[in-house]
Amino acid sequence: MGLRLAGIPASPGIVEGPVHLLRWEVPEVPHRIVGDDQVEKELARLHAAFERARDRLQLIRARAERQAGPEEAAIFDVQISILQDVSLVEHVDALVRQNLGAEKAFDLAMLEWRTQFARHPHAMLRERVGDLVDVHIRVLSILLGLGDHDPIDVPKGAGAILVTHDLTPSLTVQLDREAIAAIATDAGTTTSHIAILARSLGLPAVVGLRDAASQLRGGERAVLDGGAGTLTVAPNEREVAEFRTRARLEEQELAELRQLAELEAVTLDGVRMVLRANVDLPEEAELAATSGAEGVGLMRTEFLVVGRATMPDEEEQYRAYARVVEAFGGRPVVIRTYDVGGDKLPVGGFPAEPNPFLGWRAIRMCLDQPELFRAQLRALLRAALHGDVRVMLPLIVSLDEVREARALLAQAADELRARGVPFREALPLGMMVETPAAALAADTFRGAVDFFSIGTNDLVQYTLAVDRGNVQLAPRFTPLHPAVLRLIAHVVRTAEEQGIDVAVCGEMASQPVMAFALLGLGLRQLSVGPRSVLAVKRIVRGIRATDAERAARAALAASTAGEAETILNRGLDAALGRS
Question: Most CB atoms within 10 A, among 12, 162, 437, 471?
Fold first, then answer.
């Protein structure tokens, strides 16, 4: 029997292929003293490593530009410039001349630089720490003979399973879907951004494996089961046969689901649901448009900026938004303004923070950077000429934030008008409900917003004080906790009283039992990943809303998340005639 590693299901699908192991962490460096007669040879070895690292980065940059575009590839320019920094080279040379081995000299120099940059008062320099770590790893790997192992090394058609501790922006931008067939990471949870990205890319993924990268050597045959959350290494013939049978069944199920694409999401008792798609990347638009979705309920715009040294300009953003809007041919497209921060820093010159989820993120950053924000708002106003664009503000906790954002939207319109650039007037403006503050004070936004969208990923995180990306806390991230359910119910009631549209666009909506719960709580609009639209539609078409409402009422009265889950599972089974 093969070695079976259990993690957290992140993106469904079964892939059989070779392991491409990516150990992207600073290796242990031995303390080695060299004799005076070996110093010049050690310096030559050091400079050869610098040159090889520069050549390697140039190659990676060129490939990334072809695959992802020039803006995304620019992340490597900073790393190349670090290797060309005269003061760094001279500092390492001086340590070698003090009889330190090249690898230890470089290690010490980089540790000093990383400390200095991390403490620097200038945000742009603090943000360079991530690039310094990448350079640190790359050069030490060369000096220690650990070799190159970037994702770009995987040949097209390899069908490889990428196994690593976590994916940094510089690694993510190298991913080639024609070479990498699945992803397995030690870090992460169902709602961490690597899991969301994997679902967006259609790559099966398992996260939260904890120590897979240290247990494997690379090159092993393995089977990743994204639905079950397992990575089986060196499976025997029986196991392979079982996986292949399950893969065929999943494909058959998917074929059956595709038949629902043109059908409406209506319950057996006639309640109409609106199912839209979440879109992370502009290139997903075509897939999402054919998924059976009735538009986009959440387009995440931060994927335009993560992993870059600079923010995209108005023109680049306009093209990206217009591409998605045009793909949906007049159906609604809800575009969220930058939700940068939290676990998506450093980015675009902004630093990491010691407590990022409670820090300078999302609408807070945008309001404090009005020029950056107005550039995005101008792009959105222009893109709205191509279809039904609706703007959504993230992490709103007070009416003042909405008012300030509306003022900036008006300024952006004035700027376009002054330039003679056509745009659409009066875009619908909504807000994410992601904190207990926003949920409990939902009535205070009367007349200020056109719609609410409940972001369950963050609402669960902030309500339960559980870091959504922390694998240690994954069992405590329980969306069916009575407090979460009651907050959602309160928002729905408030929206109904005020005549405001309300939707859910978090990952919670893509899971059958949770979609059942949300329908029962009164939600009539859900937005899920493109690959989950048909599965949710099947659930909706197979139940009565009255059954969901009865189960939701009972779940609201539960004392624990476990009790609520049991109630809802039983209710769903009964509604589908499975009990």
Answer: 162
In the structure, what pLDDT confidence band is assigned to residue 284 with cuts at 50, 70 and 90? confident
Regarding whether 459 and 386 lie in a shared domain, the answer is yes
Catalytic residue of the set 165, 366, 386, 505: 505
CATH of the domain at 501: 3.20.20.60
The two three-digit tokens of residue 438, written as one number: 């926003």
Of residues 198 and 124, more confidently modeled: 198
Helix (H, G, I), strand (E, B) or coil at 435: coil
135/400 Cα distance (integer angstroms): 43
- The DSSP call for residue 578 is -
Range of the domain at 224: 3-23+155-253
**How far is CA 199 from its chain centroid?**
9
Q: Kindly give the pairing relationship between strand 501-504 and strand 451-454.
A: parallel
Domain match, 303 and 419 both: yes
Alpha-carbon distance 444 to 8, whole Å? 38
Residue 450 and residue 389 in contact, taking contact as beta carbons nearer than 8 Å: no
Q: Please state the length of the chain.
A: 579
Please check the confidence at residue 345 and state whether its pLDDT lies above 70: no
* Residues 53 and 142: beta-carbon distance below 8 Å: yes
Q: What is the pLDDT of residue 102?
A: 95
Terminal C-alpha separation, the chain: 35
Domain boundary residue among 92, 123, 143?
143
Please confirm, yes or no, whether 193 is among the known catalytic residues.
yes
Cis check: omega of the bond before 346, within 30 degrees of 0: yes
- SS3 letters for 132-145? HHHHHHHHHHHHCC
Cα–Cα distance for residue pair 438/161, rounded to 1 Å: 41
The verdict on residue 150 lying in a domain is no
Amino acid symbol at 373: F
> Cβ atoms within 10 A of the Cβ of 66, count?
11
Domain boundary among 97, 118, 143: 143
Inter-CA distances, 56 with 46, 144, 147, 159, 365, Å: 15, 16, 11, 23, 35
* Single-letter code of the amino acid located at 476: R
| Contact present, 161 and 224 (Cβ < 8 Å) | yes
Q: Are residues 508 and 459 in the same domain?
A: yes
Return the amino acid letter for 412.
A
Cβ neighbors of 11 (< 8 A, separation 6 or more) are 183, 195, 198, 199, 202, 203, 204, 205, 226
pTM: 0.78
Q: In this structure, what token pair is assigned to residue 262?
A: 């043109």
Same domain, 160 and 288: no
**Token pair in block for residue 43:** 């310096």
| Residue of 20, 165, 193, 481 marked catalytic | 193
User: Computed from CA positions of residues 434, 437, 443, 449, in that sequence, does the dihedral angle turn out positive or negative?
Assistant: negative
149 included as an active-site residue: no
Domain count, the chain: 3
Same domain for 126 and 182, yes or no, is no
Is 261 part of any domain?
no
**Mean per-residue pLDDT over the chain, rounded:** 89
Residue 207: φ, ψ to 5°: -120, 175
